[in-house]
Specification:
The protein is an alpha+beta fold. It is 27% helix and 24% strand. Strands 1, 2, 3, 4, 5 and 6 form a 6-stranded antiparallel sheet that branches.
Amino acid sequence: MTREVSIPITNDLINKNLEQMITHPNSVSIIKLLNDMLIHNHRASQYFVQMLLGSEFPEIPAINSVGYFRTSTWFEYKDNTVGSKFDINGLIKCIVTGHNSLVEYSPIIVKYACIDDTGKETTGSTGLQLDQFIPEGSEDEF
């Protein structure tokens, strides 16, 4: 069973760990820069601490990877795809078409078949978080 814990991420925590990792002659300036970048980006600081605790860098699906994402309350109001032939047991098939920065709220951009407001079949695009993309053929698929 996996439990999520909350760790307060402070300047001191980041500084201490950066000081242990960086042995460059200009380390003080580099640490100041990285600390400022990490402390102002929740996702970046979260990944930083997870990697310090032994987690691997998150795997980013390649462009043209096929997978699925789950429909959700916010999505139900986005278009008429939910409940259509493209809705497969609450999953929408999609293809990765681009990437934002890993530390963005939605680092994966996907395209999917959908139904527009007029009932016409078309394609839509949305951003997903890494844990929202279910690769085709994975155990979570169906």
